[in-house]
Amino acid sequence: MTAGGVTTERMPTPRDFEQWEPPPPARQPAWQGWRDRLGRHWLVVFSGLVLLYLFIPIIVTVLFSFNDNLGRFNFTWRGFTIEHWRNACGVPGLCPAMVRSLQVATIATIGATILGSLIAFALVRHRFRGRGPTNLALFLPMATPEIVMGTSLLALFLNLGMTRGFRTIVIGHIMFNISFVVVTVKARLQGQDANLEEAAMDLYADEWTTFRKVTLPLAMPGIIAGALLAFALSFDDFVITNFVSGNTVTFPMFVWGAAQRGIPPQVNVMATLMFAVALTAALVGLLGRRRT
Amino acid sequence: MAATATATPAPDRRADRRRRLVPYLLLAPGIAWLLVFFFVPMFTLFQTSLQEGSIQQGYVLTWRWANYTEALSTFSSQYLRSFFYAAVATVAALLLGYPLAYFIAHRAGRWRNLFLLLVIMPLLVSFLVRTLAWKIILADQGPVVEGLKAVGALPASGRLLATSWAVVAGLMYNYLPFMILPLYASLEKIDPRLIEAAQDLYSSPFTAFRKVTLPLSLPGVVAGTLLMFIPAAGDFVHARFLGTPSQYMIGNVIESRFLVVLDYPTAAALSFVLMATILVLVVTYLRRVDVEQVL
């Protein structure tokens, strides 16, 4: 490659051969190196385009919260305004729906995090009969389409004559979140050294003290991650909520209802706010992990 | 794992028995919740699917299996369309997601976590709102439609909204992160030295990919396709927002039968068939993969 004959037309002199460096051993022919490089750039360009594609709807969502729209329609760009941000609760029902979503997500997160973490502890730290069925029971809710879970809960509530509302939404959200919490907490517990617990017990800590002083603090990042996941999934859940909500309106239910008539830009304002909060939380988590 | 079983010296029998109860006590509340609100409702759904009657007179269980044949023959096109749309969207997402996952796992270096954050960012925007954003993007007279018309890819009267393309594209977009994350997880575990070794042994980059990278990343492919295909097949949001009734999927039928028409037995039968089909697909697909591994 560096033999010199490429750039000049003259005959090679002995000097050229002295300067000649042997190619690295077991190298592919030059054209393959080029193909490699092309392959790498292809990968970079393609990945960039996919990331861009992932971003376009986010940009549109944020942008159209500033759209000076006409009437009930917010589909074409008509100019910049901050009016919708100043008047974020101006659409009747939107802010109460946000509050209701926060309430549902909070309660469902607490419930699912407790139930799921307990299961994760049992699975990772204990031997017991019935592991297989337990794993299956946890796997099935994740492998079942949400619509099936929603309709089956609806069938249950109809048969029991239960009024659908806040309570039934929370029940459903705890149900589908348990498995996700188990998976997240389990991953953390598996990565940690069981010897630490043994050491605590060797130092005459009883089981409860060991759990409180060693196991729980070590598992905490996993539990928090599980709780955040559960909160996000619950806050944004539409499919199951749609079947079990009755007349109770959460934020996704509000959007679904409004979509029939035309989405007010305030919905984009709320979505942008939620996005900002979630992004901040994710960045804090990311930076926190890098520090440790 | 054996910590609790071996650590304490000379355990007496009562403490031993108590210790053996501990895992069951930990499991009990969560598993009970799943039993009552996941497994029992499945059974109720099945029962409902065999009922007969009307919303005015009430529905009674008469073991009417004809509900299934009637529901399936009436809505066979929506049923097949669901699986077709979901399959196309899943394959497309695999083709889009694999290179990106590979890039993040093996070329992004210390920026990996940042790129992963970029991948999950769409999930931080509310699901329905992000679907509605596609309605703006694909709108008639919008930049995408006008652009495609300008290069002749779309006839002058053509539109993207209210077509199968829009519905499939929406499905692909919304579930793409669920495809990329498991792909990344399995690609990241591959030791790059294995790929180098293959190339040192004179395999072309393509052969190295086909014989080393791809087989080793199969668990990710399996997990990603399942995570995407299952929700996509039962979806009813995209067809409603981006399509018309001629793009409706089985989810739309179930939704309207349950919540609008109040024809519970038909809706339950369709829902149950959807569940059964997906379960059969998943089990066939997963036959060789340990459930605990996927978890």
CATH architecture of the largest domain in chain B: Orthogonal Bundle
Q: What would the average pLDDT of chain A be, to the nearest integer?
A: 86
**SS element count, helices of chain A:** 12
**What percentage of the residues of chain A does DSSP assign to strands (E)?**
under 5%
List how many beta strands of chain B DSSP finds: 2
CATH topology of the largest domain in chain A: MetI-like fold
Global mean pLDDT of chain B: 88
Overall geometric form of chain B: flat
CATH superfamily caption of the largest domain in chain A: MetI-like
CATH-defined architecture of the largest domain in chain A: Orthogonal Bundle
End-to-end distance of chain A: 46 Å
Strand content of chain B: under 5%
The description of the largest β-sheet of chain A is: none
Largest contact between chains: A-B, 99 and 101 residues
Strand order of the largest sheet of chain B: 1-2
Q: What fraction, in percent, of the residue positions of chain B are helical?
A: over 70%
CATH superfamily of the largest domain in chain B: MetI-like
Order of helices and strands of chain A: HHHHHHHHHHHH
Q: How helical, in percent, are the residues of chain A?
A: over 70%
CATH class of the largest domain in chain A: Mainly Alpha
Task: Jot down its keywords.
heterodimer, A: MetI-like fold, 12 helices, B: 295 residues, mainly alpha, MetI-like fold, 2 domains, two-stranded antiparallel sheet, 14 helices, disordered N terminus
Which helices and strands occur, and which strands form pairs?
The complex is a heterodimer of chains A (292) and B (295).
Chain A lengths: L13 H6 L10 H34 L19 H4 L7 H32 L5 H13 L2 H15 L5 H25 L3 H9 L4 H29 L3 H6 L6 H11 L3 H27 L1
Chain B lengths: L2 H4 L6 H36 L2 E4 L3 E4 L4 H9 L1 H31 L5 H9 L6 H11 L5 H8 L13 H25 L3 H9 L4 H29 L3 H6 L7 H12 L2 H23 L4 H4 L1
Antiparallel strand pairs in B: 1-2
